[in-house]
Amino acid sequence: MAQRDATHDLARKSWVASANTPGTDFPVQNLPLGVFSTDGAAPRCGVAIGDQVLDLKAAHGAGLVSNPAAAANSLGPLMTEGRRASAALRAEVSALLSEGAPSRTDLLVPMAAARMHLPTTVRNFSDFMASYDHCARLGVRRDPKNPLPQAFRQLPVAYHSRASSVRVSGEAITRPHGQWQRQDGTMHFGPTEAMDYELEMAVWIAGDNAIGEPVPMSSAPDRIFGYGLLNDWSVRDVQRWEMPPLGPFLGKSVSTSVSAWIVTAEALAPFEVPAPAQEPPALPYLDSAWNRSNGALAVRMTAAILTPRMRSEGAAPFVLTDTQFAGMYWTAATMVAHHASNGCNLLAGDLLGSGTVSGPEETARACLAEIGLTGAVTLPNGETRRWIQDGDEIVFRARAEAPGAVPIGFGECRGVLNPAIAWPA
Amino acid sequence: MAQRDATHDLARKSWVASANTPGTDFPVQNLPLGVFSTDGAAPRCGVAIGDQVLDLKAAHGAGLVSNPAAAANSLGPLMTEGRRASAALRAEVSALLSEGAPSRTDLLVPMAAARMHLPTTVRNFSDFMASYDHCARLGVRRDPKNPLPQAFRQLPVAYHSRASSVRVSGEAITRPHGQWQRQDGTMHFGPTEAMDYELEMAVWIAGDNAIGEPVPMSSAPDRIFGYGLLNDWSVRDVQRWEMPPLGPFLGKSVSTSVSAWIVTAEALAPFEVPAPAQEPPALPYLDSAWNRSNGALAVRMTAAILTPRMRSEGAAPFVLTDTQFAGMYWTAATMVAHHASNGCNLLAGDLLGSGTVSGPEETARACLAEIGLTGAVTLPNGETRRWIQDGDEIVFRARAEAPGAVPIGFGECRGVLNPAIAWPA
């Protein structure tokens, strides 16, 4: 759990001028962590501030950041140390970057010159399905009377997903080959005809629990290092065919894109809101007073598309989804507690996906499978889309907003779909 | 693909006397790889030979093994180098340990004094369901007319499973807590009442394919580093409740046990047999002439139980399952090719589980869920078992046998079930 403190103060400004621009994702109240490199140099940890990156390795070398973990080439060591270490780092970085402190422009790298990397090697990736509206909309096709998974109201439904194919925002995706049965019963193997996105929140894990040792709800919040955006690229024709009864496999392991910046749990303290009421109430192992009052986060999330024609026309990405993370039926803390309830060891650097963040509004359908239930989308230039086409780029953005707090952003999670390869001979 | 060569010769003996004892798992024709340590020393790679372990680090230091990867503290580097490297290592080790070579007892450690470790950090773990008989038996309860998963005859059905909880043989398992719905509709959270084993073959991956690059059937065999035993501990009450529609999650992530010794693909060359006929024929991306003629392996596998009372009575483990790996509907090569067919990157050190190796015989039911379809098992001392009880130990063994070849064994994969912990306050 994180407390609201002086690092969140409305009046706080930075000596980095771009961090004070209204609408920036990265004011001094945010301070998200990532891993970057510049020409030829090794990857190192950094903090996003306005349109700059604070080089944490250099800041550590200058004696302005005390924890050697900040000088590592990934966020793994800091994640292993856990929330106390990341909170202490935040306090130091906030002091270093705030107005009144000496301007240390020598420690800054322009974001435009930084290449971003995965924050850490993803150890394990588990993907949840925590949105009532996502399940209800898509489940109606399967069973109009019982659209929800049987356990949906009792536990955060999830599956183990693929860690090796998690990639950082900006890397292109290749249209995959796959197998499915055509409606006439014949079998087909070839490039997918139903490529989709799923707009999700990424939850990065701090610290380890030993195998056999559950994580009770009282300590689950402290296992959350931070949050990011996650595109759970989905291959619908493959998925429908392969799923029964063991769940999605190749429909999900093509690639998973995550945003480069991790917004820490500390930065999000001002945006904690009550979790949605649950009926029936959750079993005790998934319930806590803190979770009921603070377990959800007021984050608005969008997914947009930029087609090749839109790009050539100089158009901005068109928003397909505009949704609220706070509406999810299960919170991140319940995901952690449930996941470890059988003694499964969650490791620092593990990644959880929240599942598609759909809401009740028609504009809050967070994947094309849902949007397409009412037909193809028509874009402003007249193009239509039922599924993602070659060359289309999908762009996620998100922003935490709450009364009395400086809004903070998540940066982007974007990826373009490249055409399928020729199948190897 | 591996060729049968002089390392497999029937007449070949070792200067390690125990390797020449009929019935040993580890004659000089086997040479399985593992990671071991002795009092206080760091883990290092070794080769099982009779009742001894050849210390590969020491052998490399003595100039008898050329590849520095053999001197690493895990098999990861050798797996990364791939099959050419492991084949070259086999040739050197075979020459070093064969009769006629100088006796280098200084390079041996008694197996009884060696503590075994995981062969490498498991990067990703995917579990298949490739036995027709396992699916048919258990599927009948769900749908007597269509017991098989809809895609079963078209692709090797699989799910992403949990890498962090993969453990080496010998480590105890803790009875997990879990949630399920009672038959009267009430919800329950507590220690499982239906703990099961699944007797599977482990397939360890060699080399990497880049994301977006499939592995065609022509190169799939060369991505298989070797084989071992795998107990996919399963929590049936939890699994039944949580599975629809995303598949098993906490029912499978409690622990997965693997045998300590990896029998290399090279060692298994004499035991290659034709894959079972498939109807309908597999799609071309899952078919090759080599797979049809050589894709299966003649390995007999057993699962046995040792209860606390049996232990106190000095009884031997009682065999519950006696089955043949060669009967699996899908081969390991098709698992590799299917897994990578969407461009998913398989990494050196990844682990595949074959799925429960059940056969058509009543004695070849390879988990208690199947065995229990005809009631609880009665053990020789009169005890009965529907599910695994506290203190029970499950012991897997396996042996490759073929005409004209020296039989080779897999060692053991064993684990005892400890009682559930008190739920943390």
Structural features:
homodimer, 425 residues, alpha+beta, SH3 type barrels, Fumarylacetoacetate hydrolase, domain 2, 2 domains, 8-stranded mixed sheet, 16% helix
What class, by secondary structure content of chain A? alpha+beta
What Rg of chain A is obtained from the alpha carbons, in whole angstroms?
21 Å
Fraction in beta strands of chain A? 25-35%
Largest sheet of chain A: 8 strands, mixed
CATH architecture field of the largest domain in chain A:
Alpha-Beta Complex
* Integer average pLDDT of chain A: 97
Tally of separate domains of chain A: 2
Low-confidence stretches of chain A: none
Largest interface: which pair?
A: A-B, 66 and 66 residues
Instruction: Tell me roughly what share of residues is in helical segments of chain A.
Output: 10-25%
Name of the CATH superfamily of the largest domain in chain A: Fumarylacetoacetase-like, C-terminal domain
- Say what oligomer this is: homodimer
**What characteristic shape of chain A results from the CA principal axes?**
globular
> How many H/I helical runs of chain A?
9
**Ends apart, CA distance between termini of chain A:** 54 Å
Q: Kindly identify the CATH topology of the largest domain in chain A.
A: Fumarylacetoacetate hydrolase, domain 2
CATH class of the largest domain in chain A: Alpha Beta
Count the beta strands of chain A. 26
